[in-house]
Amino acid sequence: MKRKFSLLGGILISLPVIAVSCNNTQNQTNNNGKNKSNEIAVLKVWNENFKDKLNSAQSYEIILNKLIKLLNGNKDLKISLANQNDLKKRFSKDIEAKLTQKLALKVNNNDLLLEAGKVAYGQQATKYKDPKTGEIKETLEKDLSKLKEFQNVKEITQIGFYDDEWNNYLTKHGVKYNYIQMVKLPKSVNKVPSVLPEEITALIEVFRGNTNAKIEGIEAWNTKNIMNTKGLFSYTQLFDGNISKWDVSSVTNMHDMFNGAKSFNQDISKWQTKSLKYLYRTFSRAEKFNQDISNWDVSNVARFSRVLYGAKSFNQDLSKWDINITRLAKFPGDKTGYDDWNKKTLIENEKSKWPLNLQNVKVSIGNK
Question: Taking the model in full, what pTM does it have?
């Protein structure tokens, strides 16, 4: 009898272990089922709204945000890119779907690949108000600044942009970079939409030579995706618009941004410039500019040439600037002063070579 009781006890003791094992198996089955259900939900939305409907101007970040928005009703879903470094990447134009491009996601920590299918050329027409008739018209022209038919246009009602397909001013310098460029506008334009399309990454020469003191709408632009502002306000005789709230944290190139902007003197002291690499001629001949830019982060800047050349009014303290480079040709702008600088001569007393109007500017120069 004692033997039977012992056997029975052994069975009783082992039952909870068996129960836990069964529960784990059941939970795993449930999780697998839920994961499969989630994948099906994502695939359904993707195939209905994205596959064969994408274009080359949309970044992965834009696509992901739209996908998440469409799936907003499903609280069980947590979606992200498989590689967070891919946020700014875009699909290449692929009208016939020959490239088999895919978007790699994490759906509740599980990998999921989504086929892009056909990818159209990324562009958006510019819409404008006809100055004679008041009629809203549109065009796919990429540069309206030199065409006679647009020379008196004052109001833009839709901002145009296009995928430059690696063909821009950098090409002739042997550098390849792909931007989504905003269409260059007529010099007469004084009003634009207050919402800048999120696809745009470059504002190269958009307002070059603009004839107005103010351009209504640009003060509210969200510029967080902008990487290149080369020549944006160059040769604007009257422009002095408030762009103090612009987010320039992604801008790497301000080459010629205010070159020849003779009236510009707005407060841009709070601009976050951690990504800046090129300040070539940025404020060259900006005759009235005299704002505090001492807190700008210029530690990554590789080229300062002529940054303040001909900036007659500038007299600010730049002693906080961390200039960690070996070449400062014509900084801040005199003809010969800094052409031959090297690490041994990057010292403050070299400012005696600056033009008279800049000799009172304080700059701390060194290398780490």
Answer: 0.82
